[in-house]
Amino acid sequence: MGALDNLYCAARAYLASRPDCAAYMPTVTGASVPQPGAMSFAQSDCSDVVRHMDRVAKTACPATQPLVDQLLSARDAVAWFQVYKPDDLVGKGKIDRTAVSLLAGPGAAFEPEHGRMGFYFLRDGVEYAPHAHAPREIYAILSGTARYWNEVSGWSAYGAGDVIYTLEHRWHAMTTCNEPVLILWAWIGEDLNLVPVLWEEDQGSIPDGA
Length: 210
Hints:
alpha+beta; Jelly Rolls; 5-stranded antiparallel beta sheet; 13% helix; 30% strand; globular
């Protein structure tokens, strides 16, 4: 098996090991390898961000360490990109310190029918301003600590081993502080090819309490 196959199996195994992630297993089961195609999300290359990823090895937890190690060993085989354009209002100009990968989904190496799955790497000092999308989402925190906000519950802190759930069309935001954060993310639902909608009326600002 190649590096991507092994990484895909490791990500699938991690979701399968979490009862609270069972609903998202359709994003990584019954998948096949599609014909190569352009990923609809990709805006720009993020190789300059990915070179900082080694730091996540130090802040994983025992449950997430195997998957973190698997990703670090396979990161050169993964296509990393930025979702947003430079002029998008995503949070004080720091979104260029992030990198997204799409492991499963339309245009990715593996293509399940109803979802997307990949990794999200955020360096320290990132603000991801409020945004929303049609699919349901999980963020499985693999390494580091992030602060997460949604329009119902406000701000909370999450660390390695925690899972964050976001319902359809719900406004949410995130920040990192003094350490990078690595996330395994998955979407289920409709409009998988659409970039998240940004809360532009607030000019990309972060809600109070961050």
